[in-house]
Specification:
Elements lengths: L5 H27 L5 H9 L7
């Protein structure tokens, strides 16, 4: 089993919450419409997941 640092666990939880609350509910529609809103990338960037702010 791989142990996570506190920072890694916080990142994991924040990412999971973002995906559960904001990405997943719309994923089917975006897939059907063949689109991926730029705002989604901005949300990941705000969490520091893209190395951008």
């Amino acid at each position: 089993m791989m142990l996570r640092s506190n920072v890694e666990e916080i990142i994991r939880k924040c990412t999971a919450r973002l995906v559960k609350d904001q990405i997943r509910p719309m994923a089917r529609k975006w897939d059907q419409d063949k689109q991926y809103p730029l705002d989604n990338m901005k949300k990941f960037a705000e969490l520091g997941l893209l190395g951008l702010r």
